Amino acid sequence: MKKKVLLMGKSGSGKTSMRSIIFANYIARDTRRLGATIDVEHSHIRFLGNLVLNLWDCGGQEAFMENYFASQRDNIFRNVEVLIYVFDVESRELEKDMHYYQSCLEAILQNSPEAKVFCLVHKMDLVHEEQRDSIFHEREDDLKRLSKPLQCTCFATSIWDETLYKAWSSIVYQLIPNVQQLETNLAHFANAIDAEEILLFERATFLVISYWQRKPHRDVHRFEKISNIIKQFKLSCTKVAASFQSMEVRNSHFAAFVDAFTSNTYVMVIMSDSSITSAATLLNIRNARQHFERLEKEELSRTPMVTR
């Protein structure tokens, strides 16, 4: 199943940097050496086995943008599942940014009216911390008003913290087929082993794609922090020619286990009962792995391939 994702925004807004961090294992400081995107760069990213993201990273130079809305209009905006538009929060050409965004929306309405729209207000690390919420909410209100009759979902993002993972996890979540069934299976697994919480990560990107929790947690950004920490640790392992397979973190209040799960996922299981041994939890993960692998194969066999 291929799903077309458009990544658009003015040149220098940070599109290619975020794509490289999420999908190509870059770290933030290394994105400085990336050059500007010329015209459209196509990436086919296998995600959860049967789901392939057909990502179109569209260069944001003015000449390219004008061309997208003229001679390439049908090719660019046809069969789009998701439009991700990136705004540089410190742009000095906000009026022009909004004009191009509205042109994108008009083309989407004409060619892909069912597409989901996401706006990333990016480079928020450049804004004083006490001003970030007010500036983001002001920009969010403007974008939602401009987007009508389409609905847009907005995120404040930076390549230097967990907000980037939060945004992309939410976007990819919208593309996963039968995600509700996946969450139901996680709930059954959690209740069977008396877990406090279970997180499911996509294997290559470590984006959180599904989770179950027994009760709400006070840190609403913990999933993205975990994604960021584990991915950085995984990259560190690669640099010393080691491969990351599993991890256990334990204190007097909880034990957290991260382990390879299906061929496309990692799982994190959090236990609060200190009387349950590590060996028992790891055995339960191994037994559940067989069940989830079977479900994944069944889903793959009944999902038709859509070429776009």
TrEMBL record:
> Could you tell me which InterPro entries the record lists for this protein?
Gtr1_RagA, P-loop_NTPase, RagA/B
List GO terms (cellular component aspect). endomembrane system; Gtr1-Gtr2 GTPase complex; lysosome; nucleus
Please classify the protein's predominant subcellular localization into one broad category: cytoplasm
Please provide the record's keywords in A-Z order: Cytoplasm, GTP-binding, Hydrolase, Isopeptide bond, Lysosome, Membrane, Nucleotide-binding, Ubl conjugation
GO molecular-function term, one example from the UniProt record: GTP binding
**Single Gene Ontology BP term?**
positive regulation of TORC1 signaling
According to its UniProt record, which reaction does this protein catalyse? GTP + H2O = GDP + phosphate + H(+)
Question: Where does the record place it?
Answer: Cytoplasm; Endomembrane system; Lysosome
Question: Would you identify the family this protein belongs to, as annotated?
Answer: Belongs to the GTR/RAG GTP-binding protein family.
Per its record, how is this protein called by name?
Answer: RRAGA_B
